[in-house]
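Q: I have 268 residues here and want to know how they pack in 3D. Can you give me a structure?
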Amino acid sequence: MYRFLLSRQWVILTLVALLLIPTMIRLGIWQMHRYEERTARNQLVADALSAEPVPVEKLTSPGHTVTTDERYHTVSAKGRFDTADEVVVRRRTNSDDEVGYHVLTPFVLADGKVLLVNRGWIPADGPSQTAFPAIPAPPKGEITVTGRLMPAETTAASGIKDLKGLPDRQVMLINSAQEARRLGAEVLGGYIVLTTPEPKGDTPELLGKPGDENAALNYAYAIQWWLFAAGVPLGWVILVRRERRDRAEAEAAARAARESPDTEPAAV
């Protein structure tokens, strides 16, 4: 009854099913690993955002590379803004996906070291973006700022090309090593995204907190792949039983046709 399983068609179908099962199981395991990684990163970000602010020099220093564990921690610093050496970062979008600039202002500490402060987003003031845009001034004099600590941007990490020959006081990346060379000063590694003091008139527009990665989607994909893996043998069994039934019905019909008498009258 099951001799048809040895046919070329069914041997190929069975081999494909046997290959699909472990492949789908492995894809489910991979998606589960992605879920665990994203969940861990989300927790790391949440812990950093909820941590108490600490002085910036406790987490970074000139030449320091901000680590994953240090990223997003709220830090504070006391000093003054240096608007004379302010630059803008090109091709940055706001929450409405409008293209403009990020305002990067050096913040000079009491010991002369410099902290890079991303003061937020401003719109582009023209299609060419060749002229330095008008930027609202930050508070004058000695103040205390707080912000989320971020690692220096690189092309490898961000995917943003570090274009050369840009208009004066415009950059593509927020890179503390590059800014140290430009300013001729000791620049703390990384930079901060400003949270306080808030700007007058809501401009520059402060950058929002990072959102969670969609870890639940990876969890759903893992379950989906495992259900597919379970469905392959079930589908194979259903196809085998259907083939067996169809063949049995065909054989029964053929046998009935052979056994039935010829009812047509003989020719005279």
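Q: Anything worth noting?
A: Strands lie at 54-55, 74-81, 87-93, 99-109, 114-123, 143-150, 170-171, 191-196. The two ends are 45 Å apart (CA to CA).
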